[in-house]
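Input record, target 12 of the design panel.
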């Protein structure tokens, strides 16, 4: 009896290769985007509570959180619209790169927002700058506030369950952002809409979690040098980096820092 397709020594092997080769390509692409986010996270400039209170004088936690969320939503919408506009005449080889750039840019905006919401609600991550960055990255992947009793190391992010959750989050964002590659101006409108919705949804989930564990400002220890990023003014959660970080570090500028009304 002649071997049929999918049978014999070559059949199953060929079938397995056909099934697994696309999966390997997809996984490799997700890994590259996840690596880019991990490497970017410690370099995201974040304002500490003192800097935020100076920038928003007279406002309480809820009012400042409203301003931060509104700024982040505008920033992520701008990124989505920009990617969509760039894809008006989409070239298929450039599409994966455009999607990857959008996801990393929006992740940077959302990481900054998450870290500053933790400052506003008094639920600060502990440890050096990179460790705090990894904690906030974990909050981004899980869409909730950090567990202050759990220290997140850089190695923990590079492997294990957190790495898998990070890949899943990247995959979810990739699927959601596909409409931004639509031709003409439809992609720009879709990209802005999807990013605005996703950033607001993430912000509200994290905010609700932090609100339930909020620590009053007068009960917080001064941040002092503990939050300063070692080796320079930049760094996630650094007091010096928050005050001295130049504008324009994130795509679309610093969306959470609107100019004062008297300018």
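The sequence produced for target 12 reads:
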């Amino acid at each position: 009896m002649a071997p049929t397709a999918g049978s014999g020594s070559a059949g199953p092997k060929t079938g397995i290769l056909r099934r697994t080769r696309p999966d390997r390509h997809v996984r490799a692409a997700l890994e590259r985007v996840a690596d880019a986010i991990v490497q970017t996270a410690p370099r995201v400039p974040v304002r500490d509570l003192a800097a935020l209170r100076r920038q928003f004088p007279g406002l309480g936690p809820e009012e400042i959180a409203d301003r931060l969320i509104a700024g982040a939503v505008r920033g992520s919408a701008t990124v989505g619209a920009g990617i969509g506009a760039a894809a008006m005449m989409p070239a298929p080889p450039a599409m994966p790169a455009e999607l990857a750039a959008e996801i990393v840019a929006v992740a940077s905006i959302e990481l900054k927002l998450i870290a500053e919401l933790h400052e506003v609600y008094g639920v600060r991550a502990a440890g050096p700058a990179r460790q705090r960055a990894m904690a906030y990255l974990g909050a981004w992947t899980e869409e909730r506030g950090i567990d202050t009793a759990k220290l997140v190391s850089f190695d923990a992010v590079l492997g294990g369950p957190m790495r898998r959750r990070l890949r899943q989050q990247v995959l979810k964002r990739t699927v959601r952002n596909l409409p931004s590659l639509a031709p003409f101006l439809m992609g720009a409108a879709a990209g802005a809409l999807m990013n605005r919705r996703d950033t607001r949804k993430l912000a509200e989930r994290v905010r609700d979690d932090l609100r339930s564990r909020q620590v009053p400002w007068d009960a917080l220890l001064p941040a002092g040098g503990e939050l300063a990023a070692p080796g320079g003014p930049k760094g996630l959660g650094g007091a010096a980096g928050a005050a001295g970080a130049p504008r324009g570090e994130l795509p679309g500028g610093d969306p959470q820092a609107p100019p004062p009304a008297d300018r």
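Residues 99 and 178 are 8 Å apart (CA to CA).
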